[in-house]
Description:
This is Peptidase. By secondary structure, the protein is of the alpha+beta class.
Amino acid sequence: MSRFLPLFPLNIVVFPGEKLNLHIFEPRYRQLILECQANDTTFGIPVYLDKGVGDYGTEIKLLSVEKKYPGGEMDIKTKGLGIFKIKEFQRQVPGRLYSGGEIEDVPLINDEQPLQRSQILELLRQMYVALGIQSLMLNLPENFRSFDVAHHLGFSTEQEYALLQCFRESDRLEIILDHLTKIIPIVLETERLKERVKLNGHFKHLAPPTFRLL
């Protein structure tokens, strides 16, 4: 069943459960946020790529308006809810400044395999240690979801958008596992190369070879 949702296209992917802080400055989106605040309603962030507004996006709940500026701009805190597919996009909603559309909620299937998660955890540990950002592992629960780590894998916006369109958790974890398997050897070799470059910049005391006189 479809329903109407105000839309705020952005060149980012917001995943379900993700907290997102935004600075709102355009009049059309200031109007959208003020209406959501007044009516306790949600809005959607569809992904905007080079080809235009994508078919998929994430429904967003406004948590708070943190600050309002004299010119009408505002800082807000939000949270991603579920994923939707746009059935009909309106560049401008009649009587409003912002975009909107008829959307359809996308059901997500939680069918992950424990082995997938444990393999990903080990690969993440290797990558983060190599990059010196192992602190990212501290707040990661063992029962993490794909969406919890998706922004910390080196994905492009297009890759994150492809992940958003996978409705099975097992498929998303498989994509992540394949990605990590491919890039970790590159990361490790790059870090080794950086260390070699650093060493080559130091003064070295090396003994020359001794040649015997014939």
